[in-house]
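To: structure subgroup
Subject: Chain for Friday's discussion

All,

I'm putting the inputs and outputs inline so they're searchable in the archive.
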Amino acid sequence: MKARKKVSEEDIIEIARGAARLFEEKKADDVVLIDLSTINSYLDYFVIATANSLIHGRALAREAQRYFKEEGFSERSRADLDSPWIALDYHEVVVHIFTREMREYYQLERLWADASSVGFRGGAVKIDDTVTIIETLIRNLSHELKNPLTTIKGYAQLLALKADDPDSIEKSHRMIQEQADRIDRMLQDLYAAFLPRTTEASAFDAALLVREILADLPPEATVIPGAIPAALPMQGDRSALARIITLILKGFDWKGLSASRCTLTMKERDGGAAIDISFEGVEMVEVAESIFYLPFSLKKYYLKGTELYEAYFIAHFCGWEISPLKTQGGRGTGFRIVI
């Protein structure tokens, strides 16, 4: 954590803007930043956001707590993260996270109608990063489509050359159909990753869930349980977490990479959990952290190539995080899930 030092007005507004941008990145709705400095003597800014569920609100609050802690800010008092109205007081900046019903009921912006709204989206998207993501996605898709399209083109040409040869016609029809089906499956997998989801929060034991997933893995999956708590009760979307872990573990190409093995560890973190899935026998060094999840970026390790994107999309929707694990030498070894 950065040591708290005397901050200027410019520093405070940039930190408040960063918090507002963070909420938008984490799928909060109706994010606003309000300047109270001209009408209030003891605080400067409100950051207000709407969560789509209690679990989403809790995840947003944890993200905000991490963000302000890294910036050197401490809370005046401990917030209730299970409330439909979560208030995080960082002295000059106060964060309000509402469920939709609670925000409509209290209408906080109307109570402070004399305050002015502040823009915060400038700089939220780095153009260079966006271009890199688009370039990588297009390159990955082009590469995956090139092989089946080349095969289809080749057998279409064979049909024209051997239109009177029944065996060539039958083989060409079969190969064209197989490659068309391959493209169709690829597009269906991509579409499935983008399907909208709803979160269903409930109380569950995350440690028990992990053990159940490990017990259900195929025989070829060499996964070694590391340090896992006897129990880790939490509130959250159990099925979403199960799907994320299953995609990462079951989607891995265990047969093609038979020398690989994996260790899964789990620990409590800030009222949630951090799950590390670390592979041995593979070094995922060629993919930058900002694009590791894009479809087909890690195709050589995964059967479909879309597993990590679906896992990333689910985690992002729930307000969780997935990031690459790296050794001290910077080599990629697996993934960390923070919930």
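Points worth raising on Friday:
The first helix runs from residue 9 to 25.
The first strand starts at residue 29 and ends at 35.

D.
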